[in-house]
Amino acid sequence: MDAIAQTQEVAQVAATTVNKYSDLALAYTSEYGLKLLGALLIFIIGKWVIKRVTKVISTFMHKANVDETLLEFASSLIYFLLLLMVIMASLNALGVNTTSFIAVLGAASLAVGLALKDALSNIGAAVLIIVFRPFGIGDTIDAAGATGKVIKISLFSTTITPADNRAIIIPNSAIISGNITNYSSQTQRRVDHTFGIGYGDDLKLAKETLMEIVMADARVLLEPAPFVAVSELAENSVNFTVRSWVKTDDYWDVYFDITEKVKLTFDERGISIPYPQIDVHQK
To answer: What pTM was estimated for this model as a whole?
Structure first.
């Protein structure tokens, strides 16, 4: 009988315990079930929206010819930030106090920002280059003391190649902080030459010769019209300024060809190109 009584007592205690925790579980479910469901819905819908937004932004940046490395980074950064916002919203829906979490996250971000100040400034400069587009891939620029064609825009630097085919890597912050000259932004460029002749040479013949050489080059545009004029009476020469407009892609070819043609034609027509001379008088 004692064994039966003890068994019944244990069974009763077990049943009471089960009922107690069942009631607690039911109460918890009824209280937090809707909150949990709402949080899950916020998270699922939020992720779906984030993917669509990120895809649209990536498509826009791809059409803008943004460097692939930079495009991937920007897409990942946007996705992470939006996902963090969705997670915070989901936690708020559950009733979790996120104030302290935000404070810790802010302090950590500040510490990381101070430690990576230079790197972050380069990333920020890369964003400015994307948004304002002072230059793009394939443009010839002069920035941070270097001149060359842009071949790559990455997170931290921009790579350009000068005429001798070297690779010059410039931090993005150095580019943004200084003047940028984009030689490819316009379809036309002006070619400027300065040629000197001797004081004893025929000035009118020299002027006609220069205009003839410029007009004979088919790459020189008629509008704006070429310009030739005496610009300076220097110590050793009478200097002419010659200006002609060409397509941007033809700039250097025209510059070098006209320079060579002037020398050859001046030689043929007996027009001298003087150089500095020093007269030494011996007593």
So the answer is: 0.63
